[in-house]
Amino acid sequence: MIVAFSVTPLGVGEEVGEYVADAVRVVRDSGLAYRTDAMFTSVEGESWDEVMDVIKRAVAAVEARAPRVSVVMKADIRPGVTDGLTSKAETVQRYLNQ
């Protein structure tokens, strides 16, 4: 499964990059496949428990420094698919190259 999530600290001012980096650091250190872009971090794992544990810890890292936290998540649950982060992007690129 892949879960794209965005964690936003509230009440800390306009510059939130250092807080978001705390969350991404947790994801990076988890060992799960992930990608971060300007809006979301996508995490890929085998189960809800595995992925949600990482997201929960990433949110907690931000929550430890911010008075309020907003979280948005979107999940793609597709049993039997591995390396979806790469294969989905490659499929789109293949169509763009036609």
TrEMBL record:
> Which GO cellular component term is one of those annotated?
cytosol
* InterPro entries from the UniProt entry: MTH1187/YkoF-like, Thiamine_BP, UPF0045_domain
Q: Identify the residues that the record assigns to the Thiamine-binding protein domain, covering every copy.
A: 3-93
Name a Pfam family for this protein. Answer: Thiamine_BP
Q: Which SUPFAM superfamilies match?
A: MTH1187/YkoF-like
Q: Which family does it belong to?
A: Belongs to the UPF0045 family.
The protein depicted here goes by the name MTH1187 family thiamine-binding protein
The record lists the organism as: Streptomyces mesophilus
